[in-house]
Amino acid sequence: xxxxxxxxxxxxxxxxxxxxxIASASARLGFPAITSVRQGKRFEVEIDGPASxxxxxxxxxxxxxxxxxxxxxxxxxxVE
Amino acid sequence: xxxxxxxxxxxxxxxxxxxxxIASASARLGFPAITSVRQGKRFEVEIDGPASxxxxxxxxxxxxxxxxxxxxxxxxxxVE
Lengths: 80, 80
Fold this sequence. Notes:
Oligomer: homodimer
Strand order of the largest sheet of chain A: 2-1-3
Structural class of chain A: alpha+beta
CATH class of chain A: Alpha Beta
Distance between the termini of chain A: 11 Å
Largest sheet of chain A: 3 strands, antiparallel
Main location (chains A, B): cytoplasm
Pfam families (chains A, B): PurS
Mean pLDDT of chain A: 96
Number of strands of chain A: 3
Order of helices and strands of chain A: EHEHE
Subcellular location (chains A, B): Cytoplasm
CATH topology of chain A: Mth169, Chain: A
CATH superfamily of chain A: Phosphoribosylformylglycinamidine synthase subunit PurS
Number of domains of chain A: 1
Largest interface: A-B, 36 and 36 residues
CATH architecture of chain A: 2-Layer Sandwich
GO molecular function (chains A, B): ATP binding; phosphoribosylformylglycinamidine synthase activity
């Protein structure tokens, strides 16, 4: 049993209105050090058995199909 | 200029129907290695200047106020 973390973020060239709203709320609410925020998704995927190359390929395919929209999002896998 | 990552996940005792939906879709769509999925949020927070203790305290307060609901969610900070 292993855990793979999949981080999904909007591509840098895609506008992120949610992140912008958080950044401007931060400034208004007294957190001046924060200059920008981007919001994404984080998935904790538990897999059966060890994180072999085959299993990681399967998780990568699953992430591409179900977790991320490859047109506007990038994703990264890491084994924890 | 530094970047702080804030990971927000539902507390372990809180049900995650979105994650469960992803896990059962994975099984159905031919990704048998995946046994469970939990979905959370990931924020990339850019800060002015270096990630000093004062600034990290500010980001922690901001995360608690704006990014996470401490009743049902846990969050973690890490400097990147």
